[in-house]
Amino acid sequence: MDDRFPAIAEQLLLIEGELRQQGWWDEASPNAEALSSVEPFSVDTLDFHQWLQWIFLVRMKQILEQDLPLPNASGILEMAEMAYADQSQKSLGLRTALKKFDQLITDAR
User: Fold this and answer.
1) YqcC-like domain location, by residue (predicted)?
2) What are phi and psi of 9, to 5 degrees?
3) Tell me, what's the pLDDT at 78?
């Protein structure tokens, strides 16, 4: 197991908490077509918060549960800054949690 797994698991919980707190957590999953986008961050079919909830968090939890290799790089904060450019104050907590996630991933390089 990668030594970063516990810290990453904690960050994933913080990210989920921020999504919930801001009202960006959906109870119903997007349709299969929306989830199968091949575009980065599924920008053509999902809002960024939906991508975080239904793609990113799900995939990262699978990686941790199955002891798979972590990604070599992460640039999620950059996308969050673009997605929430007009909501900088409201998204501050989420962007802070995503920044820490990016740091955890890149610190091992």
Assistant:
1) 8-104
2) -60, -40
3) 96
DSSP code, position 108:
T
CA distance 100 to 80: 13
CA angle 86-75-5, nearest 5°? 120
Say how far apart CA 97 and CA 4 lie, in whole Å: 15
CA 24 – CA 54 distance, rounded (Å): 12
Residue 73 CA to residue 77 CA, distance in Å, equals 12
- Residue-wise pLDDT for 4-35, tens only, equals 999 999 999 999 999 999 999 999 999 999 99
Count of domains observed in the chain? 1
Query: Does the global pTM surpass 0.90?
Result: yes
Q: Quote the domain boundaries for residue 96.
A: 5-25+42-106
